[in-house]
Amino acid sequence: MLDQCFRRPRSVARVRAGPFGQAVEQLAAYLHERGHAFKVIQGYVRGADRFTRWLAAKGMSLGTVDERLCQAFLRSRIGRMRYRFTERGVWLFLRMLRVQGIVPTPSDEPPSAVNRLVAEYDAYLRDVAGLAPASRVSRTRFAREFLQSVFGDAPIRTECLQAKHVHAFVAGFGQAGCFASVPVAASALRRFLRWLQLQGRCLASLILAVPSFRTHRHASLPKVLTDFQVRSLLKAFDRFTSVGRRDYAMILCQVDLGLRASEVAALMLDDIDWRNGTIQIAAGKSGRGRLLPLPKRVGGAIVDYLKRGRPATACRSLFIRFTMPAGTPVSCAVVRRAARRAYAKVEGCHGWTGTHPLRHTAATRMHRRGASLKHIADVLGHRCLDTTAIYAKVNLEQLAAVALPWPKGGAS
User: What distance in Å separates the CA atoms of residue 380 and residue 256, rounded to the nearest whole number?
Assistant: First the structure.
């Protein structure tokens, strides 16, 4: 593999003659399997070769490699040419060592006291509260940060938690300028302390120390695209390329069906019933799977992608990556990037980042055409109609029909 990446034989010989040349050569094969181009592999291999020579100079073996050593090496390389290639090559080299079992994965290492307590909390959120994985990640993140801010690497003694620790943690987000995170952190911390109190690990009075922030539910209107913006958005994709056909089909699934980015990424080839014209959406955030009719426009876009865009792969996922790791399912980030690139070409949508405006647009268009909130909730997978009610606020045509006329004349 090295012979294909490097043009000069002496470059290949130098890498192979390194202290861990065999491992570096294995990295080249690992990257090729992931779908990296030869020129990119060359840069990453050079970075890994520098890293292994640095390890050998310090008398260390490959089995001792971890995040701390990688960061120490990279700090010594800051300011050098091609630093980004070196940085990426080092982290990919560490990943390969873990895949091969040469270096233990973080899950194989003894968990810290903080991680053990957070793991208990995560199990409660999963098994008792029934939260979706994305919600659990958010809750456990704030719980972990709070414990680390109080105890650090010291033993966890939750009975020693005080109101000043709670105030300092919540206030820290405001001092760092993360104002939108302040109420979110306070809410997550309150739920964590309530769980500790149920476990008998802290006093109930500590929950009262968490500051409350007044929020007005449904106080703002969601971002919604106009019909003209929707047409401009769909024209933003180059449907003469494989990537353009894939991205067009993914965005159309959100505009016409109101799917979440995670639901688009999770679609499988077997989820589509072409004979009956339906598409099966797996249970996601709300825990509700649903069977939806497949609109003709969405079906046509998917067929065009399958015939002229989808790469040859054994993977059964519907939407596939074209870049490394090629041939694997797309992630939520790939779906969001496709939407973000399209937003940049639509007037009035510059700076938009997420895919939820597409979901709001689908729901608003259904409501405008006369669909009931119950029907919209079934399509979107909402368990509560109150969640769907926000879409009624943007149907200005219906609101104008029931609005009272402005009174004429002045006050007497």
Answer: 11
Closest CA relative to residue 247, chosen from 188, 344, 330, 311: 330
Query: Is 285 a catalytic site residue?
Result: yes
Q: In terms of C-beta density within 10 A (0-12 exposed, 13-18 middle, 19 or more buried), how is residue 252 classed?
A: buried
* Sign of the CA dihedral running 286, 288, 289, 291: negative
pTM: 0.71
Asked if the bond preceding 325 is cis, omega within 30° of 0, the reply is: yes
Per residue in 257-282, pLDDT tens? 999 999 999 999 999 999 999 999 98
CA distance 56 to 54: 5
Contacts of 288 (CB under 8 A, 6+ apart): 381, 383
Is position 359 annotated as part of the catalytic site? yes
Catalytic residue of the set 190, 321, 359, 360: 359
Catalytic (active site) residue 260:
yes
Residue 382 bears catalytic tag: yes
Q: Choose the catalytic residue: 50, 139, 190, 260.
A: 260
**pLDDT tens, 298-319?**
999 999 999 999 988 899 999 9
H or E, element range at 291: strand 290-293
